[in-house]
Write a structure and sequence with these properties.
The chain is α+β, with helices and mostly antiparallel strands and about 160 residues long. It has seven helices and six strands, in the order αβββαααααβββα. A hairpin with a 2-residue loop joins strand 2 and strand 3.
Length: about 160
Amino acid sequence: MCGSRAADALASLIGRNGRVSCLEEDRDRYGRSVAVCEAGGRDINGELVRQGWAVEYGQYSDGRYADGEAEARNAKRGLWAGTFVKPWAWRRGERLASETGGAPRPGSRTCAIKGNVSGSGRIYHLPGSRHYENTQIDEARGERWFCSEEEAKAAGWRSPRG
């Protein structure tokens, strides 16, 4: 359902003539183009994020859409009106509890809070926080997933500074 509504939002932004121009900025690790696309002088990427039908992928956008995403999240627009798993997390196998047939198990990938081990200690990152998207969990290094902030704190992890 969300996919078709996002497609409708995109079609509305593009308009009747369907003219889109894209400027490639990078290539991802699979060789796919990472681009900023415009239609009628409007940044389609940014507008879809602002409307809540797309999410910022901070690794490639350098935070340029962070304010628009925060605005959509706070207003509960588009995807933010409910609960969803971000695309890159979905591809890694994360699922909503409703999709797995029950509540998430602590330490499972269906839990969204990332427990990262760094030179600064054991730090947990909440979805939407500054370093969340760039934080990779390596369970072999003792990193893990938490289902709640309370669970992370009880296990001896702390929130990021600043």
